[in-house]
Amino acid sequence: xxxxxxxxxxxxxxxxxxxxxxxxxxxxxxxxxxxxxxxxxxxxxxxxxxxxxxxxxxxxxxxxxxxxxxxxxxxxxxxxxxxxxxxxxxxxxxxxxxxxxxxxxxxxxxxxxxxxxxxxxxx
Length: 123
Hints:
By secondary structure, the chain is mainly beta. The chain has one domain (26-119): Immunoglobulins (Immunoglobulin-like). It is built from 1 helix and 9 strands; from the N terminus they run αβββββββββ. It has a 4-stranded antiparallel β-sheet with strand order 4-3-6-9, with no helix packed on it. A hairpin with a 2-residue loop joins strand 7 and strand 8 (108-109). The radius of gyration is 20 Å and the shape is globular.
């Protein structure tokens, strides 16, 4: 069976509409910069954020310093129901950290452009 151009266009529009229903309608806000303090373990900093990400979001923190060993550059946590989280990550004052945060959904983790970038200053 050969579909006419108009029927194909309607079918494509219907498929796109169904796909759009599964995507968030509003962009999620970027994560807020966490508070940074000295961690108990040397070479690490303690990050904490109260309500700074979406509830139950997965938070991934990446240290861009090439002098930090690759297996120590990535850390993170899962936020609680209020979007609060804490993590100790390998970093020193002056390092640049990148934070990604995305909510858990039925199909897994979703990243929707929620990114923050900051330089470590221990308070």
